[in-house]
Amino acid sequence: MAATIHPLNTEADRLLFAYWVPNVSGGLVISKVPQRTNWDLESNIRYAKAAEAAGIEYGLTQIRFLASYGASQQHESVSFSQAILSGTTSIKIIAAVLPGIWSPTVAAKQLASIDNYSNGRIAVNVVSGWFKGEFTSVGEWWLDHAERYRRSHEFIRCLKGIWTAPDDSGFTFSGDFYRFTNYNLSPKPVQKPHPEIFQGGNSDDARNNGAEVSEWYFMNGNDLEGFRTQIEDVKARAEKFGRTVKFAVNGFVIVRDSEEEAIQVLREIQGKADKEAVEAFRDAVQTAGASTANKTGMWANSSLDDLVQYNDGFKTKLFGTKEQVAERIVLLKSLGVDLVLTAFLHYEEEIEQFGKDVLPLVRQYEKEGRGKDAAFEIERTGHIYNK
Ligand SMILES: Cc1cc2nc3c(=O)[nH]c(=O)nc-3n(C[C@H](O)[C@H](O)[C@H](O)COP(=O)(O)O)c2cc1C
After folding, report:
1. Most buried of 9, 73, 231, 239, CB within 10 angstroms?
2. DSSP code, position 176
3. Cβ atoms of 293 and 373 closer than 8 Å
4. Taking 60 as the threshold, does the pLDDT of residue 126 lie above it?
């Protein structure tokens, strides 16, 4: 049975929306500010249903094996994704997997099975790891940055190869990290050629994997120049391989009746930051970033205030009235963004509110031809990134 299309999502060139699934405790900000966001399954099925009703087409689970950025409890991403899929009918869930901890054999098998159970609604985010303490705690080798990404590169090639290999010959691969001989996975995924593959970061290594092997390149929150240069750069790298890649960006959304009110909420989140946890997070990501050759890793230019949203979601500045936030979103589209990954302070009501207030406005602007001319959108809205 084909999933029903939401009335807001009929145009092929529409911007897509995702939301961060809160499958770890503490919400999406490292702050002691009160949040109406829960991390249990029952609440998450409610959020996913609200997202479906709102026209948000994807959810993204995160993978953690250990407390970090204050997230003292963490549900496992693949099983959590499957549990959400079984409670919903149309949303796609992007499950995070960590090469090293997962082998491509296990990931390909799990995700193919889930694709069958869910009628083609699973996708995968291959994350390369930044948290050394997590790897060493569970007895995994902590490879340096370039090697982690080289392993992810092979991992993604193996996923694709296993999922698409002909039944008669199966999948054969000989790499530095993985080897297969005539492996025939059955059943194959129902999505053809295979479930969508996301991966991201900011470093050269992450960009190269975006250019060479993944279908989607995920970015942390950023400003106008940060997004523009990264998108142009990854596109140029992909062209060398005769490929195109789609772009997804993270943005923390605060919609209120006035811009001042929205900024006030941001100040409160940052003012009540869990300082100890933010500083521990900064130390961990700096350890990871320090091993990139040219220090272009994610979080390289993030202030402590930025790190309160652990994927730099404040930098994207999706704060203000519904009209302001919709304008900022069409600006992102004009830069070449294909998907906006949202997060909220109060999941209990803000997913629904986003669907009621912001998404229809974005669709209206798209109908008016907005989001195509970067010079026009920058002229109109780009100044917000100068503040
Ligand atoms: C949208 C997004 C989601 C991510 N989710 C996870 C995750 O669930 N678990 C994890 O360990 N890392 C996650 N990462 C981190 C990346 O896989 C990678 O380790 C990080 O981006 C390092 O970036 P760098 O190569 O620029 O240093 C995520 C990154 C992005 C942009």
Report:
1. 231
2. S
3. no
4. yes
**Residue of 78, 124, 130 with the most ligand 1 atoms within 8 Å of its CB, for mutation:** 130
The mean pLDDT value for 297-307 works out to 82
pLDDT-above-90 percentage for the chain:
90
Break the chain into its structural domains and give their ranges: 7-386
Task: Give the pLDDT confidence score for residue 275 in this predicted structure.
Answer: 92
Mean local confidence (pLDDT), 212-238: 97
Average pLDDT across the chain, whole number: 95
Residue to substitute in 77, 127, 340 for testing ligand 1 pocket (most ligand atoms within 8 angstroms of CB):
127
- The pair phi, psi for residue 124, each rounded to 5°, is -130, 140
Distance 197 CA to ligand 1 centre (A): 14
Strands 179-183 and 171-174: antiparallel
Sign of the four-CA dihedral 211, 146, 156, 299: negative
Distance CA 276, CA 24 (A): 18
pLDDT score at 3: 62
Q: Is the CB of 68 under 6 A from ligand 1?
A: no
Which ligand 1 atom lies nearest to the CA of residue 298? Answer: 26
Residue whose Cα lies nearest atom 13 of ligand 1: it is: 127
Q: What is the mean pLDDT of residues 215-222?
A: 97
- Hey, which residues does 125 pair with through a beta bridge? 96, 198
345-377 residue pLDDT tens? 999 999 999 999 999 999 999 999 999 999 999
- Return the ligand 1 atom nearest residue 250 CA: 1
Where do runs of H (alpha helix) occur along the chain?
Answer: 41-54, 77-86, 104-117, 132-137, 145-164, 204-212, 224-239, 259-271, 275-290, 304-307, 322-334, 347-357, 359-367, 374-381
Residue 58 CA, chain-centre distance (Å), reads 10
Tokens, residue 214: 């993944």
Strands 216-219 and 197-200: parallel
Give the pLDDT of residue 300: 75
As a CATH number, domain 7-386 is: 3.20.20.30
Please choose, from the candidates 146, 154, 210, the residue with its C-alpha nearest in 3D space to the C-alpha of residue 177.
154
Instruction: Please tell me the distance between residue 130's alpha carbon and the centre of ligand 1 in angstroms.
Output: 7
Measured CA to CA, the distance from residue 342 to residue 89 in angstroms comes to: 20
In angstroms, what is the span from residue 277 Cα to ligand 1's centroid? 18
